Amino acid sequence: MMNTADRSLAMIDYALRRRFSFVEMKPGFATDGFRNYQERLSSDIFDQVIAGIVQLNQVIANDDSLGDGFCIGHSYFCNQEKISREWLKNVIEFDIIPMLHEYWFDDKNKCQQEIENIKSCL
């Protein structure tokens, strides 16, 4: 059962959906633009992390309680001139892992497994 705060947010969501168009945006890891960006960076560790995120997105998309709408987008990894291990570590630690905790708050083992998988890409 939803708590009061969740119901309030649901009402806002419905109100917005009645008033505005919504366009589904899928992660763009396979687009020509992102692939060109990835090639320009020429970073093995970046390539490993992106492959890990693509694999994680498959897990998310196939999860009955999540699905395609919860996949992690490419924008977390954009607009860098040069890639460092430290920058990638920060993106994973401060952006990706908190999302995974929210996604699998009710399945600590699954959450930990996916965190370990993505950290192993670093």
TrEMBL record:
Protein name per UniProt: Uncharacterized protein
Q: Which domain of life is it from?
A: Bacteria
Starting at the broadest rank, the lineage of the source organism is: Bacteria, Pseudomonadati, Bacteroidota, Bacteroidia, Bacteroidales
